[in-house]
Design a protein that fits this description.
eight-stranded parallel barrel, 48% helix, 12% strand, FAD-linked_oxidoreductase-like, 714 residues, alpha/beta
Length: 714
């Protein structure tokens, strides 16, 4: 304790405060000498918790209280009481153990050394603090112990017809099977599903919160949601793991706001405050329209965030980080967290950036007389320079523009220095300027953005960087969800740059590609080519898509080409074509002796034909489940007859796991009911298999069967 008092004395003498930022779940904190440390997984008695205080507060209080002797006595008494509390609980040998923990086991990953004297205010990074140099950066966060692996993990043969009820439901109790059957029966009644949100609110008013919660847990909530918080979902995650299935975690709390409120928020958040915006020259696809401002319109299978303010985005970031910590704690690095970029920033910024990307493509197509992405033309900077010279454009600004063009030995990759977009200093307005072939002058591809909106953009990038950095430290993967086509160019561009920054040794960041889009194949191949040429690991989740009806209606109303494939079969063909190209490139990597994991693909589909196609192509090309380059994913409570047989036979299988309080996930449950109404064929098969398994258990006396798996996820 003498040494601790010395530290405190030194802090007072040098007028320094150590401040830490970070979070940790399921832990107790202790503050000593201004530092905060966490004891993971154990409860600290209240007498010890009283030690936890902010030393910087003492500095402020002390300066205010020096003027009166009575106040000084109170301050002295406060510190004396802390000392007594500590001595009461800790014996001398325990004090040494505490000191060792305090000095050598900090869990926070961000430290600042700040002078409290305003005249000497400065920030010093942790790298300059000698005693912390020995602490490896990636050990800053708590890592759970490795799971106990069964000595002889079970593997079952796979029925690719997905007709085996035992394989589908051996992870379920009989009660869970009955509940699933009842839920699917309810989803078969169109009128009930159509008015499900109204009925749930009515039931809540009639029954009261407690009875309504019991009812929901016995039906829809219990079937589609894993639990209320990070602690209560752990049994579900552990059971999934024991049957060979891994989680994609999502905190599924959604705002239940009216259409009018949604439209008001979206219009305000999608309109620039700049007076320099040229609306006459704007591309219609990237402009907000009040008719479609409520982005929930005709969307059942995707969650929607509506921007309110920057503080809300900060809270969303914290929620995503809590998801990462929950996944890391329960899945030991095999889990995934899904995020949306519209949760992290103002949608207007994504609209403007998407428009810039579209204009840049048009600009380059005009220069070369072709159709497609810049990097596909294999044009060099010299080619571009000669073109400008031939037009008589050869000034200092053009030369500076050419210096910033991103290229490699195969040609131009990007017209703009996109690598800077993941940095906080990236300036939107100053970056997107190109030489105008008509005037010979530089012209903007984006309207002048006010400083406040530039700051909002940097905030969005900072939040995303924080999330991905946390995922990297916790060894958890991030899947950036796809959104509407008017946001998607910006989302994909930002996600690709996050891949380039963080996917250096393995795939941490995954992008999502919607195969109902006409451009899906070209977008995936372009991004695969960029990953190859810039040497980073590429991660992709392939989905059919969630916004088809909304996208078609919006395109028709605003007068731009329909971005959606003409029919279901065309979407299936696009999905299979895109997947085959990814598998072909993985095979090339294997044949060349390179790391096949440089390309990682999730087949996120409830369509068993697509899953069968992927399995067949894997066999044809020579890719085994053990290569860990292809995985499969479905929603919790849907298509169990696909997910569990895959996981139990050694394939990498995931369940999308929503969680959150009952009252706050009602919008999510409403969408699940609507989605199931639209896939009656799948429901029919699932109901048939559920009944078959229930009757089998009745015949064999297994009605009280308790699931216990001996599988290990691949």
């Amino acid at each position: 304790m003498a040494f601790l008092r010395t530290i405190c004395a030194q802090r007072s003498t040098t007028n320094l405060v150590y401040s830490y930022s970070g979070s940790s779940s399921n832990s107790s904190s202790l503050g000593v000498g201004g530092k905060y440390y966490y004891f993971i997984g154990s409860k600290v008695p209240s007498s010890v918790r009283q030690l936890s205080y902010d030393a910087s507060d003492d500095n402020d209080n002390e300066s205010e209280l020096k003027s009166t002797s009575s106040s000084s006595r109170r301050l002295h008494h406060h510190r004396h009481q802390l000392q007594q509390n500590h001595n009461q609980y800790f014996q001398p040998h325990q004090q040494k153990q505490l000191l060792a923990k305090v000095l050598f086991a900090p869990v926070f990953n961000h430290r600042q050394l700040v002078h409290t004297d305003a005249a000497k205010s400065q920030t010093v990074t942790a790298a300059t603090i000698e005693e912390e140099k020995a602490i490896p950066k990636k050990e800053a966060r708590f890592r759970p112990p490795a799971p106990k692996i069964p000595e002889n993990p079970q593997r079952d043969p796979l029925d690719v017809g997905f007709n085996d009820p035992l394989a589908a439901f051996k992870s379920k109790t009989t009660w869970e099977l009955v509940r699933a059957y009842v839920v699917y029966m309810i989803c078969s009644f169109e009128k009930i599903v159509e008015h499900n949100m109204t009925l749930m609110k009515l039931a809540n008013r009639v029954l009261g919160n407690k009875l309504f919660t019991v009812l929901m847990k016995a039906t829809f909530y219990g079937h589609f949601v894993a639990g209320e918080d990070q602690i209560k979902i752990i049994p579900t995650l552990e059971r999934l793991r024991s049957f060979g299935v891994k989680p994609i975690l999502d905190y599924s709390v959604e705002e239940d706001i009216s259409q009018e409120e949604a439209e008001k928020r979206e219009v305000e958040a999608s309109t620039s405050t700049s007076s320099f915006v040229n609306k006459e020259d704007a591309l219609p696809q990237y402009q907000v329209d009040k008719t479609f401002a409520d982005r929930r319109y005709k969307v059942n299978s995707a969650r929607t965030y509506f921007y309110l303010n920057e503080a809300t985005c900060e809270r969303n970031m914290e929620v995503f980080i809590k998801c990462l910590e929950a996944v890391a704690g329960a899945t030991f690095g095999t889990g995934i967290t899904a995020i949306k970029l519209t949760a992290l920033g103002r949608p207007q910024l994504l609209l403007q950036l998407s428009e810039v990307i579209s204009r840049a493509r048009q600009y380059f197509e005009e220069l070369v007389g072709g159709d497609g992405n810049v990097l596909n033309y294999h044009k060099t900077i010299n080619d571009l320079e000669k073109y400008y010279v031939s037009l008589g454009i050869d000034n200092k600004e053009v030369k500076n523009f050419l210096k910033n063009v991103t290229s490699d030995k195969e040609g131009i990759l990007h017209l703009f220095p996109w690598t800077g977009i993941v940095n906080d200093e990236f300036q939107l307005s100053d970056t997107f300027r190109v030489p105008d072939p008509k005037t010979g002058q530089m012209r903007r591809l984006i309207s002048q953005i006010p400083p406040k909106e530039e700051e909002m953009f940097r905030n969005m990038i900072r939040r995303l960087n924080t999330i991905v950095k946390t995922a990297e430290e916790l060894d958890v993967r991030i899947m950036v969800d796809a959104e509407q086509t008017y946001f998607q160019p910006a989302i994909s561009r930002i996600t690709l740059e996050m891949m380039r920054k963080y996917n250096k040794d393995k795939a941490i960041v995954f992008n999502t590609y919607q195969c109902y889009l006409r451009e899906a194949f070209r977008e995936v191949t372009t991004d695969l080519e960029q990953a190859k040429r810039q040497n980073f690991y590429f991660g992709a989740k392939l989905v059919r898509g969630a916004y088809m009806e909304q996208e078609r209606a919006r395109a028709e109303a605003l007068g731009y080409p329909d971005p959606i494939n003409p029919n279901f079969d065309a979407t299936t063909d696009m999905y299979h074509k895109t997947l085959t190209e990814c598998l072909r490139r993985i095979k090339i990597l294997k044949d060349c002796g390179e790391d096949a994991k440089k390309i990682g693909i999730m087949v996120a589909s409830h369509n068993e034909d697509t899953v069968r196609y992927a399995i067949q192509k894997m066999k044809e090309i020579g890719i085994s489940p053990e290569d860990k380059v292809i995985c499969f994913g479905q929603l919790l409570g849907m298509c169990d007859y696909i997910t569990f047989p895959l996981g139990q036979s050694g394939y990498s299988a995931y369940k999308y796991i929503p969680y959150g309080p009952v009252q706050e996930v009602l919008p999510y449950l409403s969408r699940r009911a609507q989605e199931n109404k639209g896939v009656l064929q799948k429901i029919r098969k699932e109901k048939r298999l559920l009944l078959a398994e229930i009757f089998r258990r009745m015949r064999t006396g297994q009605l009280f069967y308790k699931p216990k798996g001996n599988y290990v996820p691949i």
